[in-house]
Amino acid sequence: MSEDNNQNAGAQAAGQQEKPQLQFSLQRIYVKDISFEAPNSPSVFAQQFKPKVALDLDTRSENVGEDLYEIVVKVTAQVTHADSGTTCFLAEVEQAGLFRISGIEGDQLDHTLGAFCPNVLFPYARECIDNLVNRGGFPPLMLAPVNFEALYAQKKARAQQQAEQASTH
User: Fold this and answer.
1) Structure pTM?
2) With helix as H, strand as E and coil as C, how does 149-165 read?
3) What's the pLDDT band for 166 if we cut at 50, 70, 90?
4) pLDDT tens for residues 64-122?
5) Architecture of the domain made up of 21-138
6) Where in this protein does the record put region Disordered (predicted)?
7) What pLDDT, on the 0 to 100 scale, is given for residue 11?
8) What percent of the residues of the chain are helix, what percent strand, and what percent coil, each to the nearest 5?
9) DSSP at 143
10) Chain-wide mean pLDDT for the chain?
């Protein structure tokens, strides 16, 4: 009976070694690139501030080492005067993070890199944009939260449509 228990324990240990252990940890958050331009200052301050905001958002990820991924959330906010169309300012931030991820593969890893990690980084990018705008002499620009889950789903749907269109032609 003790032999059976030893065999079962050995089989369980072997099974545990085969399955990689799930690990997810944030190693570092940092600004990779930052830019602020107010090309029409100081004349833009003479007008009543009526902002028209154009926001561009992008994410990318790269494997930079064993189980180590760099994720970058790029936020570009271009604000023009609603009446005149004059550019008030352009603020751009590439907020990055290093994540240690293991035990996740395939679609689940792609989802983690494309949606979960950007959700972690976006509040930092949002704060950085707000700080830049304030330092530029403009009222705060409080960006609304972003649903990276929905953006990821849209991106996957577009990729699938393109693949289907390519296979029919």
Assistant:
1) 0.81
2) HHHHHHHHHHHHHHHHH
3) confident
4) 999 999 999 999 999 999 988 999 999 999 999 999 999 999 999 999 999 999 999 99
5) Roll (3.10)
6) 1-20
7) 47
8) 45, 35, 20
9) P
10) 88
Give me the amino acid identity at 105.
E
Q: Which of 92, 168, 80, 94 is closest to 132 using CA atoms?
A: 92
Three-class SS state of 17: helix
- 127-136 per-position pLDDT tens digit: 999 999 999 9
Which residues, 6 or more positions from 158, have their beta carbon under 8 angstroms from its beta carbon?
A: none
Please give the angle made by the CA atoms of 5, 10 and 13, to the nearest 5 degrees. 125
Amino acid at 146: V
Q: Where are the domains positioned within the chain?
A: 21-138
41-47 contacts: CB < 8 A, separation 24 or more? 41/136, 41/137, 44/81, 44/86, 44/87, 44/88, 44/89, 45/137, 47/81, 47/84, 47/86
Closest residue by Cα to residue 93 from 18, 137, 9, 30: 30
